[in-house]
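Following up on my earlier thread - several people asked me to post the actual chain instead of describing it. Fair enough. Here it is, all 63 residues.
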Amino acid sequence: MNRELVWAIVRLVLGALQVIAAAAGVILLFRTGVNSLSLGVAAVGGILTLTSILLFRQRKTKQ
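Reply from S.P.:
Thanks for posting it. Predicted structure:
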């Protein structure tokens, strides 16, 4: 596997996990209100987003 393909897979997985965490956080907030579980899911989503930003802010795609 070449390096660009590996980074593309990492970026795709991080993006999917961000979407899942966001959806789970909203569902938990509506169903259970603000509690430790919903705040934990929101924190995990934030960590995933921060990780993605730190890893990929310098990376430009070739066109």
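The longest helix spans residues 3-32. That should answer part of your original question.
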